[in-house]
Amino acid sequence: MGALRQLPGPVLAFYGAEDQGMPAEAREHLDLVLREQNVPHEVIIYPGVGHAFMNDTRAHGYNAAAADGWQRMIRFFKRYLEA
Q1: Is 57 helix (H, G, I), strand (E, B) or coil?
Q2: Residue 13 dihedral angles phi and psi, to the nearest 5°
Q3: Cβ–Cβ contacts within 10 Å for residue 18, how many?
Q4: Does the residue 1 lie in any domain?
Q5: Residue 3 falls within a domain, yes or no?
Q6: Number of separate domains in the chain
Q7: What is the pLDDT of residues 10-46, one digit of tens each?
Q8: 58: Cβ–Cβ under 8 A, 6 or more apart, which residues?
Q9: N vs C: which end of the chain shows fewer Cβ within 10 Å?
Q10: Which residues form the domain of 45?
């Protein structure tokens, strides 16, 4: 996570609480480091979903967490990318 200290801009991170590829401790560490570095960020954890929950081509289908994630992403982009 050393590269986090060199990020040039805001960070938006979505995770499914059941995602085995990013344990809770790592998500908490990400949030802590970004906060300590004063990097504007949002770390959102969606309960009951796993990895790639925003991928609408997966067999488990598109769900409410994915819909919420897309809306949050649009708001985040508007906040940080509008000129």
Answers
A1: coil
A2: -130, 125
A3: 12
A4: no
A5: no
A6: 1
A7: 999 999 999 999 999 999 999 999 999 899 999 999 9
A8: 52
A9: C
A10: 10-81
Whether the model clears a pTM of 0.90, i.e. scores above it, the answer is no
Long-range contacts: 45-49, Cβ < 8 Å, 24+?
45/15, 45/16, 45/17, 46/14, 46/15, 46/16, 46/17, 47/17, 48/16, 48/17, 48/18, 49/16, 49/17, 49/18, 49/19
Do the Cβ atoms of 53 and 16 come closer than 8 Å? yes
User: Which helix (H) or strand (E) covers residue 32, if one does?
Assistant: helix 24-36
What is the Cα 26 distance to its own chain's centre? Answer: 12
Please indicate, yes or no, if residue 2 is contained in any of the structural domains: no
Pairing between β-strand 41-46 and β-strand 11-16 as defined by DSSP bridges: parallel
48: left (phi over 0), alpha (psi -120 to 50) or beta: left
